[in-house]
């Protein structure tokens, strides 16, 4: 029937080069089998208009975090300390949804709480995956 399925155009092989396509694809991959979950998250200092969403995925936890305001060209962000009570034995990975890779974050177990120091919170979402041992 001469119909092409794609994202934003009629040439799917070119769509894969677009940032919007990569972000949607990578978010779909990261959020596979995810459900909302209540997870206590403490952040100090709190960025302006902090947005924090928490999820569960099998044995892992996911945290979406950003400063929810007007996006700027060069957002300096806020260096914050994130504390997740009762998750001290978990490891943390930062996930870049634009390019689709993850990076282990420096974290520590402080009295049974997972603590991530010097996390830069900016005006676009940061995804954190907390993995059980």
Task: Summarize it.
The protein has 2 helices and 10 strands, in the order ααββββββββββ. With 133 residues, it is mainly beta.
Structural overview:
The model has no long low-confidence stretch (mean pLDDT 85). The chain folds into 2 domains: 1-30, no CATH class; 35-131, Sandwich (Immunoglobulin-like). The protein is globular. 12% of the residues lie in helices and 42% in strands. It is built from 2 helices and 10 strands, in the order H-H-E-E-E-E-E-E-E-E-E-E.
Query: What is the rounded Rg?
Result: 17 Å
Query: CATH superfamily membership of the largest domain, which one?
Result: Golgi alpha-mannosidase II
Q: Tell me the distance between the termini.
A: 51 Å
Give the averaged pLDDT, no decimals.
Answer: 85
How helical, in percent, are the residues?
A: 10-25%
Question: Could you list some keywords that capture this structure?
Answer:
single chain, 133 residues, mainly beta, Immunoglobulin-like, 2 domains, 6-stranded antiparallel sheet, 4-stranded antiparallel sheet, 10 strands, 12% helix, 42% strand
Per-chain topology:
Elements: H1 12-15, H2 19-30, E1 35-36, E2 42-44, E3 50-57, E4 60-67, E5 78-84, E6 91-96, E7 101-104, E8 108-110, E9 113-121, E10 126-131
Antiparallel strand pairs: 1-3, 2-5, 3-4, 4-10, 5-9, 6-7, 6-10, 8-9
């Amino acid at each position: 029937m001469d119909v092409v399925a794609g994202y934003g155009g009629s040439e799917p092989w070119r769509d894969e080069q677009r940032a919007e396509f990569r972000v949607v694809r990578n978010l779909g991959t990261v959020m596979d089998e995810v459900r909302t979950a209540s997870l206590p998250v403490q952040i100090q200092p709190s960025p302006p208009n902090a947005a924090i969403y928490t999820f569960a995925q099998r044995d892992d936890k996911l945290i979406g975090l950003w400063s929810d305001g007007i996006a700027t060209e060069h957002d300096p962000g806020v260096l914050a300390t994130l504390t997740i009570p009762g998750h001290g034995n978990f490891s943390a990975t930062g996930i870049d949804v634009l390019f689709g890779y993850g990076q282990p974050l420096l974290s520590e177990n402080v009295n049974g709480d997972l603590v991530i120091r010097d996390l830069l919170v900016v005006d676009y979402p940061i995804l954190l995956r907390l993995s059980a041992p």
